[in-house]
Design a protein that fits this description.
The protein is α/β, with parallel strands linked by helices. It has seven helices and ten strands. It binds adenosine-5'-triphosphate (ATP) and magnesium ion (MG).
Amino acid sequence: MLIEAKNIHKTYKEADSLLHVLKGIDLQIHAGEVVAIVGPSGAGKSTLLHILGALDVPHRGQVHFNGQDVYALNDQERARIRNSQMGFVFQFYHLLPELTALENVILPAMVKNNSRKTSAIELDGVKLLEQMGLAQRGSHRPSQLSGGEQQRVAIARSLMNRPQVVFCDEPTGNLDSQSGAMVIDVLLNLNKSNGQAVVIVTHDQAIAKRTQRIVYIKDGILLK
Ligand SMILES: Nc1ncnc2c1ncn2[C@@H]1O[C@H](COP(=O)(O)OP(=O)(O)OP(=O)(O)O)[C@@H](O)[C@H]1O
Ligand SMILES: [Mg+2]
């Protein structure tokens, strides 16, 4: 089992009450699996994705990643797992505007390598950009790229350290349908060729239908 989430609870403090956002989620994700997480706005999809991806701490419950209890680790150890074994793709790309496309792509490898750039890292980044159909865009800044191109740069970045899973939060939410379809094609093809698991939060039923399994969430509970 790649990821095993058990009895996940998450609450947020409001002015004078507690908002119970996740109410005991159990979810397992196998190595190489493609899963969609679907549900209405405010259901807790992003919160769940962040907890699965070691980005946010649950108030109760555990997440095991390759058998390791992620939230029993200290921040540094957790960050290392996140950087080396997980990739993230967000709705608004989250590219660094002052860096070129290639510099954005290789950033996770630089972090892993104590900020030292090597020719092997750069070559990997160039290859990933090529795979994304962006061979000619490596020296462009994010502001010089279309939305779909920026998202493909973000996908290349997410793959830089050859993760076992890529978490995607509404990866096509900011794209027109044609660019969105291309982004989903890229993610599914990468799953086929490299075998990493893909977890996609989406509102879009057409996208969800292209995955192997759909998980529905409503009011912080998974629907069976
Ligand atoms: N940092 C926070 N502080 C307080 N409440 C929060 C915080 N983050 C999320 N929430 C609340 O938790 C609930 C679930 O949020 P979440 O972002 O997980 O929903 P979602 O399913 O991803 O929705 P959407 O489809 O609109 O992105 C919402 O009611 C939201 O307002
Ligand atoms: Mg969300």
